[in-house]
Amino acid sequence: MADNYYLDNPDLRFHLMHLDLQDAVRLRERDYAEADEFAEAPESYADALDSYDKVMVMLGELCAQQIAPRAREVDRQGALFEAGQVCYAPGTRANLDDLRRAELMGVTLPRQYGGLNFPTTCYTLMMEMVSRADASLQNLVGLQDIAETVYRFGDEDQRSRYLPRFASGEVDGAMALTEPEAGSDLQAVQMRAWQDDKGQWYLNGMKRFITNGCAKVHLVLARSEEGSKDGRGLSMFVCESGPRLKVRRIEEKFGIHGSPTCELQFNDVPAELVGQRRRGLTRYVMSLMNGARVAISAQAVGIAEAAYRGALDYARAREQFGTTIDKFPAVYEMLVRSKVQIVAARTLLYETTRYVDLRDNYEHLVDHGEPDRVTAEDRQRSKTYSRIAATLTPLSKAMSTEMANQVTYDSLQVHGGTGYMKDFNVERYCRDARITNIYEGTTQLQHVAAIGGVVQRILEPLMTAMSHLPFEGKLRRLASSVDVAREKLNRAVAHVESRNDSEYFSLMTRRLCQMETVLFVSYLLLRDALADKAREVVAERYVLDMLPAVATDYDVILATDLSLVDRHEEILAL
Predict the structure, then answer these.
(1) 562 phi and psi, to 5 degrees?
(2) Three-class SS state of 87
């Protein structure tokens, strides 16, 4: 068993040290003026990196030595529901206590509220390690975006009352969005928010499939505008648990057993409006969902890492026909493919969080900075980073979660029949991975969210810049092949748009998003190989494996007869 989930994975430290976070950290630390107010605040970027690194080492040890050993029993016991109360498994309670004592419950919150003021990239890296140890625990500690939402959109009174309690671990949170008749279609939310004659808000209705619905604080999407029927009638509210908020039941699930998924009944629960009326879905939920997509991407990568390592250890120990099975081409081919896909997904994930950090910090500068010090360049950067982050976030979730399902599938295959038994953790990894490409937006919805940025070629300038890096020899040949494939993508986008048919456009959305993802990740891996020659073999394998898929998608897009779009019912009827 590993002693430290950070130190035993050089890929994590590579990304932390090589991502260009200087601008985002400078803004977050207010040009390092925070050091004048808080003893623990960094005085420079190098000081900040050292601080991040130390916390990662601490959490890596906690994950490996405390959380991971409890995970199997947490999965076996699960959360319990008795007499209207939800009770975590003993191991889950111990894990949360450990994280509270380590002061890791307010990672991204400002220091004035008791937080660490870490960037999203560091928080995401931490959630990947937690997920490798116990994916269900990530569903609980990974809800820190709820506190972040109160910070970004609430008023100062709400911040001062809620955020220190989140940071200390006194309260936890839940994101109450989904309803029995409103799954992915959040515009259909019907929970009623009403005011009495004193202006006090109350919430009435049902919510379903709520992760950690037993939490002490809830962010709730509700219909505040009577008679409205679309997203413009929805607002965001914060409320606390109490006798009027009842947990009706918890779901019996395929996986993620340590995290309770609840059905909630709100019986005129007192609540407070967060931000402005009518912006609940169009502004605040979109922010929440973007944060959740990143968190689930990290969860998926963490599960895949755990499954791959379990399969590798098993293959190196299992002997058949006089040799360990890791020597069999059919087995090591699966292991190599898994390793390459994990590295690729992780690379996209942390490139995504880098742009999320830039977006968030420039948005904060534009919205809250001194007007005479905010330049036109700052405003343009805010817009640019927002567009890039909005494109990368769904692409990352789609890639990471689909990858996790494939890696866990292959890892169980490496184990053979023993992997199907509960004697090994791999069967749990398979069950836990399966939800990642469903919740917080299915893969299909991620493609819908990303396609606008794909057809607008938002990532094209970034890929062009990377294609001009000083590649030599093998890396230059690989980069040139990616350049050729990118030309195909641009022609495919133009072809789909030229058809001017919405159903055809929707049908080709998946293929265009897949092409964009493969090409962008290929450039990232080639770029990283310039910084670390050992990574060259991963970049080569990924490019050689994945460019044929780009060619296939291109051929299908250009060859698809528009009439075939209308004939799907004939096929389904066979």
Answers:
(1) -55, -30
(2) strand
Say what the pLDDT of residue 562 is: 60
Q: Indicate the residue type of 384.
A: T
Q: Identify the DSSP state of 285.
A: I
Residue type, 551: A
Residue 266 in 3-state DSSP? strand
Q: CB neighbours of 185 closer than 8 A, spacing ≥ 6?
A: none
User: Residue 263 gets which letter from DSSP?
Assistant: E
Helix residue ranges, H only, 19-119: 22-28, 45-62, 68-77, 90-101
Domains and CATH numbers, the chain: 1-171 (1.10.540.10), 173-278 (2.40.110.10), 279-458 (1.20.140.10), 459-562 (1.20.120)
Task: Calculate what percentage of the chain has a pLDDT beyond 70.
Answer: 99
Helix (H) or strand (E) holding 113: none
CA distance 26 to 212: 34
Is the distance from CB of 294 to CB of 352 less than 8 angstroms? yes
CA distance 278 to 234: 5
Query: Which residues have a Cβ under 8 Å from the Cβ of 508 and sit 6 or more positions away?
Result: 492, 496, 557, 560
- Which residue in this structure is represented by tokens 């116990």? 134
pLDDT band at residue 534 using 50, 70 and 90 as cut-offs = very high
What pTM value is reported for the model? 0.96
The confidence band for 565, taking pLDDT boundaries of 50, 70 and 90, is low
- Of 12, 66, 71, 14, which is closest to residue 310 (Cα–Cα)? 71
* 319-334 confidence digits (pLDDT tens): 999 999 999 999 999 9
Burial of 374 per CB tally in 10 Å (0-12, 13-18, 19+) = middle
Q: How far apart are CA 536 and CA 124, in angstroms?
A: 25
Cα(389)–Cα(350) distance, integer angstroms: 11
Residue 301, classified by CB atoms within 10 Å of its CB into exposed (0-12), middle (13-18) or buried (19+), is buried
Sign for the CA dihedral angle at 35, 36, 38, 40 comes to positive
Q: Which two tokens stand for residue 357?
A: 């950090």
Closest CA to 88 of 145, 138, 142, 137: 137
pLDDT band at 92 (very low <50, low <70, confident <90, very high): very high
Alpha-carbon span 508 to 494, nearest angstrom: 12
Residue corresponding to tokens 């099975």: 325
| Residue of 553, 552, 521, 551 lying closest to 539 (CA atoms) | 521
Q: Is 474 helix (H, G, I), strand (E, B) or coil?
A: helix
* pLDDT over 90, % of the chain: 87
Q: What is the residue-wise DSSP string for 541-554?
A: HHHHHHHHHHHHHH
